[in-house]
Design a protein that fits this description.
Elements (H helix, E strand, L loop, with lengths): L8 E10 L14 E8 L1 E6 L2 E6 L2 E5 L5 E3 L8 E9 L2 H10 L1 E4 L3 H17 L4 H24 L4 H4 L2 H12 L6 H8 L3 H12 L3 H19 L4 H7 L5 H12 L3 H9 L7
Length: 272
């Protein structure tokens, strides 16, 4: 699968805040965009002369260079996710600026799941940041996509440019599940044929080829770094049919899974 060029928006930090009923959000000016998703309670904020009351299931995007802070003390039941983004291009600035302000999340549970996965990846990246950076970037893309969903329910010409990237992020997150062009299109709110055409134009391959590429990438790592059997690796990589798995593996490596394992490990470990 063709790799995505640098993302136009880069996630630089993230976390989750759980209130103890004390204090309030500090007043400050920062050089990044801040995305906040309220999970429970109500968060009251200001940005310059604007005031926001963000309830559970709603999000807020604050802009760089503008003074913002909390209004009153945190409520005892307040909990929210947060992350900071930098725009890496004019297109990135336009994308983030379009999200500025507050709005209800189209899928608050899915939004929160993306945040949770991001925090898990950030924790894992402490020991090996390079290995996890790609997934972190893709999860950042998914967060922005979730924030934009209310505007993207009806697919417009501007929104079409983000659909292939959203699909690629979903593939990397869910390749172990039974996903297809149809299931991804349904999640993204567009027709499968439309998604397929946009994806091929963007990445030069079909959605199914992309799914298989990611699954085989996972299988290759497991063959070298685990003692699982080839059949077990097929299932772990998202294949319910070991024969189909072997066919796809050979197509991409010109080797059977067993040959690949022996070649990479120099030995014979629990193969077919």
């Amino acid at each position: 699968m063709a790799a995505v060029d640098e993302t136009i928006c880069r996630m630089i930090s993230a976390g989750r805040f759980i209130s103890r009923g004390k204090g309030r959000h500090i007043t400050r000016v920062i050089d990044s965009y801040e995305l906040i998703l309220v999970v429970s309670g109500v968060l009251e904020m200001f940005e310059e002369s604007r005031r926001f009351r963000v309830a559970a299931g709603e999000y807020l995007v604050l802009s760089p260079g503008r003074r913002h802070g909390g209004i009153g003390a945190y409520s005892a039941d307040l909990s929210f996710f947060w992350c900071h983004f930098l725009a890496r291009s004019e297109a990135g600035k336009a994308r983030l600026a379009a999200l500025a302000g507050s709005a209800p999340a189209a899928r608050p549970e899915r939004f929160a799941d993306c945040f949770s996965q991001l925090l898990t990846e950030l924790k894992a990246a402490r020991n090996n940041p390079g290995e996890h950076q790609r997934c972190i970037d893709l999860l950042g893309e998914l967060l922005l996509a979730e924030a934009a969903l209310p505007q993207e329910r009806v697919v417009s010409r501007d929104a079409a440019g983000t659909i292939p990237e959203q699909a690629e992020a979903l593939i990397r997150l869910r390749f172990e599940e039974e996903i297809s062009t149809a299931t991804l299109a349904r999640e993204l709110g567009c027709h499968p044929d439309y998604l397929g055409r946009l994806y091929r134009e963007r990445f030069g391959c079909t959605v199914i080829d992309a799914i298989n590429d990611v699954r085989i990438e996972c299988a290759r790592k497991l063959l070298v770094n685990s003692h699982l059997s080839v059949k077990e690796i097929a299932f772990e990589s998202g294949y319910n049919d070991p024969v189909y798995f072997r066919r796809q593996f050979f197509r991409r490596t010109a080797m059977t899974p067993g040959e690949y394992r022996r070649c990479r490990s120099g030995g014979h470990i629990n193969t077919e």
